[in-house]
Automatic annotation (TrEMBL):
Residues 894-1144 form the P-type ATPase C-terminal domain. It comes from the Eukaryota. Involved in transport of phospholipids. The chain crosses the membrane at residues 103-121, 304-326, 357-380, 929-949, 961-979, 1000-1025, 1045-1069, 1076-1095, 1115-1135. It is an enzyme of class 7 (translocase). Keywords: ATP-binding, Magnesium, Membrane, Metal-binding, Nucleotide-binding, Translocase, Transmembrane, Transmembrane helix. The keyword Magnesium applies. It comes from Carnegiea gigantea. This is Phospholipid-transporting ATPase. Belongs to the cation transport ATPase (P-type) (TC 3.A.3) family. Type IV subfamily.
């Protein structure tokens, strides 16, 4: 590109649909300016004027933080105390300041402050990082007009509505700007919107012609204009407004709007007027908080906490009743039963005359005393563990995509364990299963098919049937399939080979004139921008989609090189069929009718050097065939056959057609078209479409293109492993049914022998109603048709029973709309659940989200959605887990996802390895927390019962407080971070192991209650063994018996040993850190006991010198510790040994394989694999099994 003060460039006022020139709005009956939703008024270059100030628009400061300095403490505390457990500990902490407390207030408050403080610190650090990002963005500078034609840099946050700014190349736009002019003569600029919508291609913007001459700083000295436009909204692709300038009103469109967070590219500078600032900008209007997602394990954990609360209240109630009855009997006829409490002269707590009140007060005391049943550090421990687990996911080198330098990225740590419970995967196709890197591989021109390339789908189909490929190679098995080499030109986007039309040979073909028009159309009908390397002379292309680039590259490689755009022309180097020489040919661009998802086609009107006006059009077959002329299309049937074959081969097709237009028809169209595109109204698109319909008709067919979107590497193998793990896979795609079906075969979602249940509206009755245009009758008939097909499908499933036959459900978008209606969707879901594979074709983004919601709500199982484009965002946010592919369609899906990966194949390791590990670690950690707290709580309860429920605690206050926080929590955290029941290699080798999470075996109520029962048993053993061993005898050499301080310290020591040794027994995979935490926790207890006991007795109270003077010298203390710990572990050890040996779970069986050295024993490994919860019905493995079964059946029949 040329450089200089003013670049010459293409005249996009002639190209782009939304050229807004000199048209007046005086007679525009569609105008809505000034009405509701269109009330914004901007006074350009006058941000400080009175008229500007009365509107009170927000400044340009943007904040994405959750808290401010003033709100952090109250809001963060509110967030913490929304958790019922934290709120409970707050209440008990407050009550600890009353005489009711069985312990000191400080010992109750400090652990709570520590736990809440850690959580708040984590929140604060995360928010501070967001704050730092905000500061960096708000302090960026941009040049702003300060008056007298002088531009000075100011910080973004100081911008105001109405400011004139100058943005230079590669800078971000600081606010939503109205483009006034640029360094190009035609006032165009290139914009990268990756941060906004995730798209990597450059967008073209163009200013109004009336402001395009404002190209110097000094030109803005006296510039004044008034903009009236729509109010702030979240729609990135619309903008309706007008600008009053030089006493004329000019319509505005999205073509003039430069959005905040976009970047200026390939343009030296632009001038713009600030229209929306700060949180009024479209990017901030779109910055809604993602839906809050909580894992099923976490929600179930809340229920367990509530259960423990119920147990706690029951224990307190029973104790209070017993205490009340006992207190009432303390003083009868002057005889004092518990004389040491002085019931004749007692306070209300032990007053026999007020036993009911005493019982109630004891109830409150017991609620505080038994609070140690609830693990105060559980929530914060889980948060720490999940953050560390996420770090390991991010650092996994096996999920690092070196080609794009993209590792896996867990964007949230809330759902780690949910990765181990996925029942259904809902996947996009293009860019997710495929590469979204289009290659031109085949075409049909004048009824003749060209292109000898072999697609992946053709290979898969040939492998499936054993039939020969077009080149004569027969694929009968895996070995032959691998020997078929892929022919590739080495040119990105071009994988075409056919000697009939390559190297200029097309001139010898029977329809060479049609072939010439075909490739001329490919080289001209697009919005691609050429970039010529001045040194090498090579031409590269900047295209809005991979398809566009592939078409232009194909045209170039076949002799029609698009190399230049000027203000009004497109220039080609093309082969002259008469002279056989390359010549330059120029086409004058008169208008472009853009492609969009509604039109499904694009057209360009050009004038040739000979003066002919041509309409060149390309689009989907569904919209192009109805627009062909009734005569003159002799090879339409042949072309239809070819595109059907191309769809069977998994290719994306477009129809190419043209027609010649006379001057009068074009002028008439152009006048109406300009009126429609200059309309300032929300229905501008509809008006343009109505006018376009009048010109895009009576087309002459040239042929069809076929491009291949290759499967990503490892997709079939990944799907095979996921299917073996029992995960169901649905594909939701916008492609045609034939293309989707054949991609399904290529990636092994479908296989030979699988019964296909097709639901569509391609029936004669429906087609007749479509022609009659009776919408009411059509809707009714369509719904009835879909309902009938669903019921027929269910009947097929019922007829097959529990047989080995697998079904695949394939439904198109039109049918899906009816299948998702309230009275039909449950029937549809029942049918879909019964099928091995589900493929939804022609699905809109909204339908993808609705299907995801239906599966999630209908099955009550964990759903995972995976996609790579902006059209997948709704699906990702609706699913329990959203996985974004950081691929060719930008970062929109990634920004809306929970976890980002670079390739679909990494999903295998993410789920089967990390998912299984995280699920097992978190659930085991939670069960262990409940176990250790119940052991502790049971000893408290039994001692209080032993002390006639007098609220006497057996432990020192600080023993109580530090049990959860220091002596037992770190081993649990190490379990949650490092433990592995089986290695990653075995997780992948035996994918069925994943079903332990899907079926929730490791966190079922049976397992939770069994751990609680283990805790109760351990607590009972500890208390009664200690009581029996220490009662009524001398404890040490001086002959003193045991008092409650010694009893409590001894029992506490045993509990610390017990729960840590229980952890050592439970762990499957020891690391140095786990050894340090387990044995270090025990050592820490002894160190604490000595240090705390050395403090003055006012502080240490019952712990004063208890270890040095009483416990350490007594052999009974050490012997009792050893004996009771071993006794309490015997029930768990016995149960585990019996289960491991005689009733092993699936992971136990795999552990036996490793222990017994039978890793290489294929028969035993196969036997373990066959302990399947469900038969594998999709994937290469299922295909192989079905093939063997079919051969066996044929052998038996012979």
């Amino acid at each position: 590109m040329a450089h200089g003060r003013r670049k010459k460039k293409l005249h996009f006022s002639k190209i782009y649909t939304f050229h807004c020139g000199k048209a007046s709005l005086e007679h525009d009956e569609h105008s809505q300016i000034g009405g509701p939703g269109f009330s914004r008024v901007v006074f350009c270059n006058e941000p400080e004027s009175f008229d500007s100030s009365i509107h009170n628009y927000p400044n340009n400061y943007v904040s994405t933080t959750k808290y401010t300095l003033a709100t952090f403490i109250p809001k963060s505390l509110f967030e913490q105390f929304r958790r019922v457990a934290n709120f409970y500990f707050l209440v008990t902490g407050i009550l600890s300041f009353t005489p009711l407390a069985p312990y000191t207030a400080v010992s109750a408050i400090v652990p709570l402050i520590f736990v809440i403080g850690v959580s708040m610190l984590k929140e604060g650090i995360e928010d501070w990082r967001r704050k730092q990002q905000d500061i960096e963005v708000n302090n960026r500078t941009v040049k702003v007009h300060r008056g007298n034609g002088v531009f000075e840099p100011i910080e973004w946050r100081h911008l105001k509505v109405g400011n004139i700014v100058k943005v230079e190349k590669d800078d971000f736009f600081p606010a939503d700007l109205l483009l006034l002019s640029s360094s190009y003569e035609d006032a165009v600029c290139y914009v990268e919107t990756m941060n906004l919508d995730g798209e990597t291609n450059l967008k073209l913007k163009q200013a109004l012609e009336v402001t395009s001459s404002l190209v110097e700083d000094s030109h803005f000295k006296d510039f004044k204009a008034t903009i009236r436009c729509e109010d702030p909204n979240a729609n990135l692709y619309t903008f309706v407004g007008s600008m009053d300038y030089e006493e004329q009103q000019h319509p505005l469109s999205p073509q003039q709007l430069l959005l905040r967070a976009s970047k200026l590219r390939n343009t030296d500078y632009v001038y713009g007027a600030v229209v929306f600032t700060g949180h009024d900008t479209k990017v901030m209007q779109n910055a809604t908080d993602p839906p809050s997602k909580r894992s099923r394990v976490e929600r179930k954990m809340d229920k367990v906490i509530y259960f423990l609360f119920a147990v706690l209240f029951l224990m307190a109630f029973v104790g209070s009743v017993v205490f009340g009855v006992t207190t009432n009997k303390d003083l009868k006829n002057g005889i004092m039963k518990r004389w040491y409490l002085r019931p004749d002269d007692s306070k209300v707590f032990f007053d026999p005359k007020k036993s009911t009140i005493a019982a109630f007060l004891h109830f409150l005391t017991a609620l505080m005393l038994y609070s140690y049943l609830i693990p105060i550090s559980l929530y914060v421990s889980i948060e720490i563990v999940k953050v560390l687990q996420s770090h390991f996911i991010n650092q996994d080198i096996e999920m690092y995509y070196e080609e794009a330098d993209k590792p896996a990225h867990a964007r949230t740590s809330n759902l780690n364990e949910e990765l181990g419970q996925v029942d259904t995967i809902l996947s996009d196709k293009t860019g997710t299963l495929t590469c979204n890197s289009m290659e031109f591989i085949k075409c049909s021109v004048a009824g003749t098919a060209y292109g000898r390339g072999i697609t992946e789908v053709e290979r898969a189909m040939a492998k499936k049937t054993g039939s020969p490929l077009p080149n004569g190679v027969v694929i009968g098995g895996e070995e032959n399939g691998e020997n078929v080499t892929e022919t590739s030109s080495g040119i990105k986007g071009f994988n075409f080979t056919d000697e009939r039309i390559m190297n200029g040979n097309w001139v010898n073909e029977p329809h060479s004139d049609v072939i010439q028009k075909f490739f001329q159309l490919l080289a001209v009908c697009h919005t691609v921008i050429p970039e010529v390397d001045e040194e090498s002379g090579n031409v590269s292309y900047e295209a809005e989609s991979p398809d566009e680039a592939a078409f232009v590259v194909a045209a170039r490689e076949l002799g029609f090189e698009f190399y230049k755009r000027t203000q009004t022309t497109v220039s080609l180097h093309e082969l002259d069929p008469i002279s056989g020489q390359k010549i330059e040919r120029e086409y004058k661009i008169l208008s472009i009718l853009e492609f969009n998802s509604t039109r499904k086609r694009m057209s360009v009107i050009v004038q040739t050097e000979e003066g002919k006006i041509l309409l060149l059009s390309k689009g989907a077959d569904s919209v192009m065939f109805p627009r062909l002329a009734r005569t003159g299309n002799d090879f339409e049937e042949k072309t239809r056959e070819h595109i059907h074959d191309y769809a069977d081969a998994g290719l994306r097709t477009l129809i190419l057609a043209y027609r010649e237009i006379d001057e009068e028809e074009f002028q008439n169209f152009n006048e109406r078209f300009n009126t429609a595109r200059n309309a300032v109204s929300a229905d501008r698109e509809t008006l343009i479409e109505e006018v376009a319909e009048t010109i895009e008709k009576d087309l002459i067919l040239l042929g069809a293109t076929a491009v291949e979107d290759k499967l990503q590497r490892g997709v079939p193998e990944c799907i095979d492993k996921l299917a073996q793990a029992g995960i169901k896979i649905w594909v939701l795609t916008g492609d045609k049914m034939e293309t989707a079906i054949n991609i399904g075969f290529a990636c092994s979602l479908l296989r030979q022998g699988m019964e296909q249940i097709m639901i569509n509206l391609d029936t004669p009755e429906i087609k007749t109603l479509e022609k009659l245009d009776d919408k009411k009758a059509l809707t009714k008939a369509s719904k009835e048709c879909v309902l009938k097909q669903i019921n027929d499908g269910k009947a097929q499933l019922a007829a097959s029973g529990a047989g080995s036959e697998a079904f695949a459900l394939i439904i198109d978008g039109k049918s899906l709309a009816y299948a998702l209606e309230d009275d039909v969707k449950n029937l549809f879901l029942e049918l879909a659940i019964g099928c091995a594979s589900v493929i939804c074709c022609r699905s809109s983004p909204k339908q993808k989200a609705l299907v995801t919601r239906l599966v999630k709500d209908g099955t009550k199982r964990t759903t995972l959605a995976i996609g790579d484009g902006a059209n997948d965002v709704g699906m990702l946010q609706e699913a329990d887990i959203g996985i974004g592919i950081s691929g060719a369609e930008g970062m929109q899906a990634v920004m809306s996802s929970d976890i980002a990966i670079a390739q679909f194949r990494y999903l295998e390791r993410l789920l089967l390895v990390h998912g299984h590990w995280c699920y097992r670690r978190i659930t085991s950690m939670i069960c262990y927390f409940f176990y250790k707290n119940i052991v502790f709580g049971v000893t408290l309860f039994l001692f209080e019962a032993y002390a006639s429920f007098s609220a006497q605690t057996s432990y020192n206050d600080w023993f109580l407080s530090l049990y959860n926080v220091f002596f037992t929590s770190l081993p649990a955290i190490a379990l949650g971070v490092f433990d592995q029941d089986v290695s990653a290699r075995f997780c992948l080798r035996f994918p069925l192991l994943y079903q332990e999470g899907v079926q929730n075996f490791l966190f079922s109520w049976l397992r939770i209650l069994s751990w609680m029962f283990n805790g109760v048993c351990s607590g009972v053993i500890v208390f009664f063994f200690c009581k029996k061993a220490l009662s009524h005898q001398a404890f040490n050499d001086d002959g003193h018996p045991v008092d409650f301080q010694i009893f409590g310290a001894t029992m506490y020591t045993i509990v610390v040993w017990l729960v840590n040794c229980q952890m050592a027994l439970f762990i499957s995979y020891f690391t140095l850190i786990q050894h340090i935490f387990i044995w270090g926790g025990i050592a820490l207890w002894y160190i604490f006991l000595m240090v705390y006991g050395a403090i003055n007795p006012i502080t240490s109270t019952t712990a004063y010198q208890v270890f040095i003077e009483e416990l350490a010298p007594a052999p009974m203390y050490w012997l009792l510790t050893l004996f009771v710990v071993a006794s309490a572990l015997i029930p768990y050890f016995t149960y585990s040994a019996v289960q491991m040996r005689f009733f092993p779970m699936y992971h136990n069986m795999i552990q036996w394989i490793r222990v017994e050295g039978r890793i290489e024993d294929p028969e035993y490994c196969q036997m373990v694999r066959q302990r399947s919860i469900r038969a594998t019905t999709v994937g290469p493995t299922a295909r192989l099994v079905a093939s063997r079964r079919e051969r066996h059946r044929q052998t038996q029949s012979i």
